[in-house]
């Protein structure tokens, strides 16, 4: 009796699934769209730099690409606006110190102390950012005249710091709420008081958030124009925003120098943003997960 063995039929490999190619196409599309949006957003900056490098050309005669690099506009801008740039740096850094000195303890108290009406206080802090700047500037001018703070560095620092304090309080509170209470209790068990715990434990843990709040406070103060115009009646304290405003009126035919001054005023903020970008990302998202 013979036994026949059935030979298995050959297995035909399944055709490759073409669907994985779709995500790659979407990624390319998103990349192209992002590049186009970035070009549109950066075009004013490019045109500002392009005009600054062609100081001899009229505003309507600027070539799309400079044929020769002429730095005379920057030389003129540094000579006439260099002091105002230093004033803006001093005022902006002073505003950052004042802002963090007020906002950090306030945020810590709202985050860790069981205070009544915490949500109301936070909501009221957000409401203050909706008040028009001209209203605040006019009210501050009357108070500054009585206090003798008009035309002073400290007065302008204090006014500019008020622009960033509400945002800094809300941002740092959302981060400090996520700090484990066990860490604070352990420091208090070791004999540290509330002030020492705040300075030596909470602030080092909140480094990213402090840098983020400080950077935004710097940008608020650096770009301020309303307080600089309202609270200064002389040229003793003139930030670069006010300097460029007056510079345009005096050099309306020399747009190369005006644009050069604008480029120089954008450099400090751009450098700080590049150096602190990783801290900004960590500081903004740090309080989102507990």
UniProtKB/TrEMBL annotation:
The lineage of its organism: Bacteria, Bacillati, Actinomycetota, Actinomycetes, Kitasatosporales. It comes from the Bacteria. Residues 85-276 form the ABC transmembrane type-1 domain. Keywords: Cell membrane, Membrane, Transmembrane, Transmembrane helix, Transport. Residues 10-21 have a biased composition (Pro residues). This is Carbohydrate ABC transporter permease. The keyword Acyltransferase does not apply. It is a multi-pass membrane protein.
């Amino acid at each position: 009796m013979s036994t026949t063995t059935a030979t298995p039929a050959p297995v035909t490999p399944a055709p490759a699934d073409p669907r994985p190619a779709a995500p790659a196409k979407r990624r390319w599309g998103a990349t192209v769209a992002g590049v186009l949006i970035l070009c549109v957003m950066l075009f004013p900056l490019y045109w500002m730099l392009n005009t600054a490098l062609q100081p001899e050309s009229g505003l309507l005669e600027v070539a799309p690409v400079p044929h020769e690099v002429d730095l005379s506009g920057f030389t003129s801008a540094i000579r006439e606006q260099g002091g105002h740039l230093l004033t803006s740096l001093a005022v902006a850094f002073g505003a950052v110190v004042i802002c963090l000195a007020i906002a950090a303890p306030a945020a810590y108290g709202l985050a860790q102390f069981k205070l009544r009406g915490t949500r109301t206080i936070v909501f009221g802090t957000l409401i203050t950012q909706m008040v028009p700047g001209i209203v605040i500037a006019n009210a501050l001018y009357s108070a500054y005249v009585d206090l003798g703070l008009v035309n002073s560095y400290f007065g302008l620092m204090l006014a500019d710091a008020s622009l960033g304090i509400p945002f800094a309080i809300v941002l740092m509170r959302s981060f400090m709420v996520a700090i484990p209470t066990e860490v604070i209790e352990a420091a208090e068990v070791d004999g540290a008081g509330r002030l020492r715990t705040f300075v030596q434990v909470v602030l080092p843990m909140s480094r990213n958030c402090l840098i983020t709040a400080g950077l935004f406070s710097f940008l608020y103060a650096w770009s301020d124009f309303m307080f600089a115009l309202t609270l200064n009646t002389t040229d003793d304290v003139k930030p670069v925003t006010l300097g460029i405003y007056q510079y345009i009126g005096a050099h309306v035919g020399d747009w190369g120098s005006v644009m050069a001054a604008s480029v120089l005023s954008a450099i400090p903020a751009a450098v700080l943003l590049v150096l602190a970008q990783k801290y900004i990302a960590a500081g903004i998202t740090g309080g989102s997960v507990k």
